[in-house]
Amino acid sequence: MNQSFLTLPSLEKASLAGRRVLVRLDLDLPLDYHGHGGDLFRLKTALPTLKKCLSEAAGVVLIGHRGRPQGRDTKLSLKPIAEELGRLLNHPIIFVENFVKLRGVKSEKSGEKLLNLVMLENLRFWPGETGADPEFVNKLAVLGDLFVNESFASAHRQSASATSLPRRLPTVFGYRFLQEVAAVERVFHSPARPVVVVLGGAKADKLDYLPGLLKIADQVLLGGALPRLNQLTNPRLVTAELGSDGLDISPASRDQFAKLISEAGTVIWNGPMGKFEDGSHMAGTEAVAKAVAAASGFTLVGGGDTQAALAKLKLTDKIKHLSTGGGALMEFLSLGTLAAIEAVRPRESSRAVSIMTSDER
């Protein structure tokens, strides 16, 4: 692969003084989240970016989405997320439900400290976000002088904020977003071999990533529901045997996967090996999790269910790079780019996906 993302515009090199900054965050926390406890991983990874913006910018507006609401849905409001993020930052966040109320908030500073940090309600409450409606893009664009994309998890989706706004405002990427890019670049350009990808879960559309993953991996291990859904054959594809009820991989496959992972120089894992959440089908996921945690090579893990399994087993801190994205990570690895990255490239050179031969990778 010849394409490099190391020259992407970064927050570190941006001048923030006197500028209003619009920051898109990964705010799509678990749907059972009510503002206390919950999974704060995505919020914590954004703190360095937010602290820099607060210390240097003239104004900061936070935007993001949560879930897939059909119109306004109070269960998917960002208000509890704003409260929790404010606690993590030790800085109050003014939460506003609409653009009219947002226009009434004035930026105030005490010395060098920005007093007003604002979060707008769930962008998906407006149909213009997912539809990338030009009028909605205009509403967002007037909120800032600079756009900071710190939302890796949604970087693979076309939207008004992630992929249309960069055509209207100068755009840079936040610290965590670029850390995610660096982790993937390591796989593309200088992977320790063999590269082993472990793909699980129950979503059939994950199989769409297989052709691209097979171009970068020495072996792809299929677990979860994917063995009975997959129709692709490849000598580097290792398909797990499933137990009699089909809800977990067999003991023999657990041992086989653990051995291949232990021998890998690079391990990428996305998706549990079975219905781990009910406890009685945890063995396959636990075996893979422990093998990945013990691996001496570079480990790159993404996906909400995968992270939940690691947290349940208290193995999260054993992973070299825990990604904030699941689908975004897999799409980046399989296609070689992301929609949000292409949005900052000159139109004449921008491509929806990068086209790379196996030799180029």
UniProtKB/TrEMBL annotation:
It catalyses: (2R)-3-phosphoglycerate + ATP = (2R)-3-phospho-glyceroyl phosphate + ADP. One of its GO terms (cellular component) is cytosol. InterPro entries: Phosphoglycerate_kinase, Phosphoglycerate_kinase_N, Phosphoglycerate_kinase_sf. The keyword NAD does not apply. ATP binds at residues 206, 246, 277, 303-306. Keywords: ATP-binding, Kinase, Nucleotide-binding, Transferase. Its EC number is 2.7.2.3. GO terms for molecular function: ADP binding; ATP binding; phosphoglycerate kinase activity. GO terms for biological process: gluconeogenesis; glycolytic process. Pfam families: PGK (PF00162). Belongs to the phosphoglycerate kinase family. This is Phosphoglycerate kinase. The lineage of its organism: Bacteria, Candidatus Gottesmaniibacteriota.
